[in-house]
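#structure-requests
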Amino acid sequence: AKDISGLEIHIYGDGPDRSKILNYIEKKKINNVYIHGPFDYLNIGKIYSKTDVVWSVYPNTSNSNKKYVIPNKFFECLYFQTPGIFPRKTKIGDLIEQYDIGYTVDPYSISAIKKLLLYILNSSNINAKIYSLINSDISYLWDDDIKALGKLLEK
C-alpha cells in the first residue's frame, strides 16, 4: 500500500494483532494507512459513506471452512451499495463474480492484490460495480442453503 499513490487504507475495528499492525506501519513509515480502532456499529453507515471499496479477504486454505463462509461484510456491501474485495475460489468469491458486484483476488498473492488495487484506482470500473449492486436482484439467505442441505440429506 505504501507505494501506491492515491491509495488510502482505513482500518476499523480491533483485534489481537492491532499492536503488530501499528508497529509495522510505524517501522515501515507507511503514511497512507489509518487505524481507527473500535467503533460503534450504529456508525457503520457513516463508515460506508466514506468508503469506496471494502476489503473482506481472508485466508481460504483447502482444509478450511472459510471457503464456504458468507461474511457479514457481503451483506453490508449489498445494503450500502459499496463494492467489496473478496477471496477468489470461495463461495463468496463465486457469488461476487456471478453477479459482478465486486472484486475477487487470490489472498496469497501480493502481486495480484497490488494489481487489483491499481486497477480499481485507475479505472472507472467501480461505477459499473456500484450500478450492478444497485440493480442486483441477489437475495442470498441462510434459508436458501438450509433448503438445499435438506434436499441433499433426503437423498
